[in-house]
C-alpha cells in the first residue's frame, strides 16, 4: 500500500511534520508512506496553469492509494498554505485536476493548545468532502493531539506519549482497512 502523508503547513518547525514522520517510520511494515512538504507550492490562482511543483504534487496524490493530512490550527482553521495546496487539486483548477475524487483520506493534527487542532481538522474534512474535492474520508476516525510540546521531543521529533501513540495506532489501522476496502 502506498500512502502520501501531507504536512499541512509551510512552517520551518512543525509538530505535524514530526507526526507524519513518526507515522512513516512506525507503520513502514504496513505501508510505504511518503512524507510530502507543501512549502514550495505556489499560491493558488484560479486562472493560472499549474507549474511543475503543482503537477508533481497532483501526481503524488494520483499515485497514492490514500492520503494522510496532518494539519495545525491557525486562527480556528487550516493554514493558508494547506488551503492553497488543496485548491490546486480541486475540480475548479486549471489543467488535469480533481485528483482527490474518491481518494481515501485521513485527517489528524496536533497543536500547542488543548483542542488538538480540532477546528482545523473539521475544516479539512469539509474541504475534502466538498463537491470540488469529493474525497473519500473515513468518518469518525479522529485523532486530536493537544499539548504537542509535551508529547513530542522537540530535538528528535519522537512521539513520547503512549496514550497518543495508541490512538494513532487505532486510527491508522482503521484507515488501512478503509483503503483496502476501497480497492476491492
From TrEMBL:
It holds the Pfam family FMN_red. Gene3D superfamilies: 3.40.50.360. GO terms for molecular function: FMN binding; oxidoreductase activity. This is NAD(P)H-dependent oxidoreductase. Coiled coil: none annotated. Transmembrane segments: none annotated. Residues 1-149 form the NADPH-dependent FMN reductase-like domain. One of its GO terms (cellular component) is cytosol. It comes from the Bacteria. InterPro entries: Flavoprotein-like_sf (IPR029039), FMN_Rdtase-like_dom (IPR005025), NAD(P)H-dep_reductase (IPR050712).
Amino acid at each position: 500500500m502506498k500512502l502520501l502523508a501531507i504536512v499541512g503547513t509551510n512552517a520551518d518547525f512543525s509538530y505535524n511534520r514530526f507526526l507524519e514522520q513518526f507515522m512513516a517510520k512506525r507503520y513502514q511494515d504496513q505501508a510505504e508512506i511518503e512524507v510530502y512538504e507543501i512549502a514550495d507550492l505556489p499560491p493558488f490562482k484560479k486562472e493560472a496553469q499549474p507549474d511543475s511543483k503543482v503537477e508533481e504534487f497532483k501526481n503524488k496524490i494520483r499515485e497514492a492509494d490514500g492520503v494522510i493530512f496532518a494539519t495545525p490550527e491557525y486562527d480556528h482553521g487550516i493554514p493558508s498554505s494547506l488551503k492553497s495546496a488543496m485548491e490546486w487539486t480541486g475540480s475548479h483548477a486549471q489543467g488535469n485536476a480533481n485528483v482527490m475524487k474518491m481518494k481515501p483520506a485521513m485527517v489528524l493534527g496536533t497543536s500547542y493548545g488543548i483542542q488538538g487542532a480540532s477546528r482545523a481538522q473539521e475544516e479539512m474534512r469539509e474541504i475534502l468532502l466538498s463537491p470540488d474535492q469529493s474525497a473519500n474520508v473515513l468518518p469518525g476516525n479522529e485523532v486530536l493531539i493537544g499539548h504537542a510540546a509535551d508529547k513530542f521531543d522537540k530535538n528528535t521529533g519522537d512521539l513520547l506519549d503512549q496514550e497518543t501513540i495508541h490512538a494513532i495506532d487505532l486510527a491508522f489501522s482503521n484507515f488501512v482497512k478503509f483503503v483496502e476496502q476501497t480497492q476491492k
